[in-house]
Amino acid sequence: MGYMMHHAIVFDSWDDKVTQKAVDKAKELGMTVLGPSPQGINGHSSAMICPDGSKEGWHESKVGDETRDAFVEWAKTLAYPDGSGALHWVEICFGGDEPDLNTRVIRFYGQGGFKEEE
To answer: Which H/E stretch holds residue 49?
Structure first.
């Protein structure tokens, strides 16, 4: 059996080359990606790695978790030595069978560095 819980990663950069690099990496890992968006204010463009659609506990969910982990580890390598970086991202969890329990931020990277749910 299993239950639904959606995981997605949204990312953004002021450097459209960095956004495209992240899109390319996600696709290389076999992820479904929407974007990148056209550049908005201050030249930012965004994209989203879509949920894998499988139920928690299924083999496909485990593969999705591992693939998201691989993307996050790759994204961490883009940070500058001072901890800042051009690619900001957030992994969110939402919806599914228990949206009140499932909706939360799992981990993120921004100007303050990397943070993960405790």
So the answer is: strand 45-49
